[in-house]
Design brief:
Blueprint lengths: L4 H15 L2 H7 E2 L19 E2 L5 H12 L4 H20 L11 E6 L7 E8 L2 E8 L2 E3 L3 E5 L4 E3 L2 E4 L3 H13 L1 H8 E3 L23 E2 L5 H15 L4 H11 L5 E6 L7 E7 L2 E7 L1 H4 L2 E6 L7 H11 L1
Parallel strand pairs: 1-3, 10-12
Antiparallel strand pairs: 2-3, 3-4, 4-5, 5-6, 5-7, 7-15, 8-9, 11-12, 12-13, 13-14, 14-15
Helix pairs in contact: 1-3, 5-7
Length: 314
């Protein structure tokens, strides 16, 4: 059965461009070979594309429909919570920086209606989703989700915590692997200030220290590590998540933790495998500001399917 995701993306991207007026379409559309196609920026910085705040209702809805083709229902809900947090953060900062939930941008590289290679990105503060489509195959990375604040509380209880599962499942893994496993997994007493891959367009993998290999864990530890990887892959639509799981099957993975193991403390972890990098960091704002990313270090931004395309063409 053919993968329906590329056609969904093609249809949604074409509908988006059709919904834009000429100035907006010019801002959103770029050549596939534009160097800014390989781009990841989750901080509040200038970025290429067209801003959703500048679009009419039909244009904004078309942009969200395109984003939804790249995310599972759960991950799309996380993304919308991340967007909503911009207003929460702006209020907490006394409205000084003018953050707003419309400050998200969409860019399309190439012509989705005609080209056999094209790409798109939906991005803003704490959200960056990049998809590359070549010969009707999707390369789905990087996918970044962050949250500031990571937890919003009321009456001492959380009311919004978009990345709760990413933290809790990793803590369960740390608990189940026991003292020997934790000794191997914990690679530093202090967590890094941010995810190590940061906003770089390419990552020199693997990141060291590697931490504990999956093969050294017991049955429960291996199962929990597999669940953690599956959680991040499940950010993608089921068809893409299944394909990514098949691609990674049989390879060794490593789990590393840095920083406090106490809930509420500054902490970081990563999972690495063959062309897999997962990073989670919660250190800023006294451990209430989280960054997470799913990357393919050897084939981010479609490097794998572009190489296959060029080999076939030549």
């Amino acid at each position: 059965m053919d993968d329906p995701v590329p056609e969904r993306m093609r249809t949604a991207a074409t509908a988006l461009l059709d919904a834009l007026d000429e100035p907006a379409r010019a801002a959103a559309g770029h050549a596939f070979d534009d160097r800014r196609r390989r781009w990841l920026e989750y901080r509040p910085r200038p970025r290429p594309g067209v801003c959703l705040a500048d679009l009419d209702r039909a244009g904004r809805k078309a942009a969200h429909r395109l984003l939804a083709t790249a995310l599972s229902p759960g991950a799309y809900a996380q993304a919308m919570a991340v967007v909503a947090l911009e207003e929460v953060l702006d209020r907490a900062e006394g409205w000084r920086r003018g953050r707003h939930s419309g400050d998200y941008w969409v860019a399309v590289y190439g012509d989705p209606g005609r080209d056999d290679r094209w790409a798109w990105r939906f991005e803003g503060h704490h959200l960056s989703v990049s998809m590359t489509v070549v010969d009707d195959e999707v390369s789905p990375a990087p996918v970044f989700l962050g949250a500031n604040p990571a937890t919003v509380t009321h009456a001492g209880r959380p009311v919004l915590r978009p990345l709760a599962a990413e933290e809790e499942l990793a803590r369960e893994l740390l608990a189940v692997i026991g003292p020997a496993g934790r000794d191997a997994a914990i690679v530093a007493d202090d967590a890094p200030a941010d995810i190590v891959s940061a906003t770089r367009a390419s990552v020199d993998a693997p990141l060291t220290p590697l931490g504990v290999p999956r093969g050294r864990l017991g049955v429960a530890g291996r199962a929990m590590l597999d669940q953690l990887v599956a959680l991040y892959l499940a950010r993608l639509p089921a068809e893409l998540a299944g394909r990514e799981a098949d691609r990674l099957a049989g390879g060794e993975t490593h789990f590393a933790w840095a920083g406090s193991t106490r809930p509420g403390g500054r902490h970081y972890y990563r999972v690495q495998g063959d062309d897999l990098l997962i990073e989670y960091d919660n250190t800023a704002d006294d451990g209430n500001h989280a960054h997470t990313v799913l990357r393919r270090p050897a084939s981010d931004f479609g490097a794998d399917i572009l190489a296959a395309h060029h080999a076939h063409a030549h």
